[in-house]
From TrEMBL:
Signal peptide: none annotated. It comes from the Bacteria. This is Class Ib ribonucleoside-diphosphate reductase assembly flavoprotein NrdI. NCBIfam families: nrdI. InterPro entries: Flavoprotein-like_sf (IPR029039), RNR_NrdI (IPR004465). It holds the Pfam family Flavodoxin_NdrI. The lineage of its organism: Bacteria, Bacillati, Bacillota, Bacilli, Bacillales.
Amino acid sequence: MRKIKYNKNKDMIIAYYSFSGKTEKFINKLSGFNIININKNTIIDNPYILVTPTYNIGEVPEEVNLFLQNNHKNMIAVMSAGNRNWGSNFAVSGDKISNKYNVDLIGKFEMYGTQNDVDKLISYIRDYYESTNI
């Protein structure tokens, strides 16, 4: 098993998982960040934000769970995608990860997300840097 290390000092890392391509379409709306498409072997040594879909009407993707086993300590926040047709299970993977690892839930978005969703993520990153004086 090959471990991948990423170490970019003072550059925000946005880690994401996308099986169907919907979360990746959201990520492609971002620019100016270190963006990493994760898998179970990825290791991230610096603070990062996780963007993940929700599968099977309320589940964290297994690949994300495996990634988090070795990477949860550097996660500062999560943002999740889902389908509003799932009602209370809409993008609930973000709630589950936020609660389990005690990190901020930035927000939830449907399908590919909107510009407002992108702006919310960018605003969180800006506020994070301002509050940590990085």
